[in-house]
């Protein structure tokens, strides 16, 4: 893994930690840069802006979940058993991605507040990403 990719993944993990404890609105790019001991401009280089970093967090969490669910969908078992396994896998994944789930739920409040314009762009990009990468 390249240094660039390592830094990007570390930024995502730090953002998950900060967004899940302080909220998206309560976390500044400066907070993330300070936690990473990195310049603010580096974060903009990797993600463009705070919404881009949020998108990366959502992609990280949703890709992990989608991959796990897709594996279950591909199994050869009776439909009812597969459905039960899908539900169980989703619940277990929600436990594994606790902080990310917390961010997902906080996002609904972001949509209602002053960030609506910038988050609307994020929402469109996220929907395009999930539609493009959905295996279903």
Task: Write a brief structural summary.
The chain contains 7 helices and no strands.
Structural class based on helices, strands and sheet pairing: mainly alpha
Q: State the distance separating the first and last CA atoms.
A: 29 Å
Radius of gyration from the CA trace?
16 Å
Number of domains: 1
How are the elements arranged and paired?
Elements: H1 3-22, H2 29-36, H3 40-47, H4 50-73, H5 79-96, H6 98-112, H7 116-133
Keywords:
136 residues, mainly alpha, Tetracycline Repressor, domain 2, elongated
What does this entry look like structurally?
The protein has one domain: Tetracycline Repressor, domain 2 (Orthogonal Bundle), CATH 1.10.357.10. Helix content is 82%, strand content 0%. It starts with a helix and ends with a helix.
């Amino acid at each position: 893994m390249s240094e660039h990719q390592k830094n990007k993944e570390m930024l995502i993990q730090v953002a998950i930690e900060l967004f899940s404890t302080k909220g998206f609105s309560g976390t500044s790019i400066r907070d993330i840069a300070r936690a990473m001991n990195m310049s603010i401009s580096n974060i903009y280089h990797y993600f463009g802006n705070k919404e881009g970093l949020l998108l990366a967090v959502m992609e990280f969490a949703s890709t992990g979940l989608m991959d796990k669910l897709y594996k279950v969908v591909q199994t050869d078992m009776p439909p009812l058993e597969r459905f039960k396994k899908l539900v169980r896998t989703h619940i277990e994944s929600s436990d594994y991605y606790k902080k990310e789930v917390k961010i997902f739920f906080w996002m609904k409040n972001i949509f209602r507040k002053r960030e609506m314009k910038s988050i609307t762009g994020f929402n469109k990009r996220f929907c395009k990403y999930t539609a493009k990468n959905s295996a279903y």
